[in-house]
User: Fold this.
Amino acid sequence: MKGWTTESLLEHGRQAKRERKLQYAQSLFRKALDESRSSENRELRATVYAELAYVERTLGELEHATTHYLLAANIYRDAEQPLRWAHSARHAADILREQEKQEESGRLYAAVLETYRANRDSSRLDLANAIRGYALLKSKWGASQEARALWQEAGDLYRSENIEAGVQECAAQVASLPD
Assistant:
């Protein structure tokens, strides 16, 4: 690996990730991150952070994953890449929600949804996934009315993208909410 560039380490790490060689992918992404520190290409560094965070989340290293998703998000925000910011921030919000960090995840979800809704280049699937996470948070913490509206909106978006599993999950969640 000596002499490999950030880009080649990133590509080899992605290949290892696809092959489910997660520890190897993690080591490659860490080396890519070290290599990227000498580069002026901060967006490449953000990509490495996001890839590393994905692997860390899969391996159950949630604190590291959250930190790396947020570092990626901060770089994307500074680079005026709102959709990439929202994508990384949403993944961080998902982890924070799973850790029952309601306030932190709620603030992130609200900002992510604002970004997706304000940007006409947002994909419906990204918006639906962000709404789903926020709906899970609202459901868990007893905000049934808000959760119901979010689940219905996410269901409509999943339906428009022909994602039947998403439609079914949203309908089941709506049905499980108290009146």
The first helix runs from residue 6 to 18. The chain has two domains: 1-122, 123-179. Residues 123-179 form one domain.
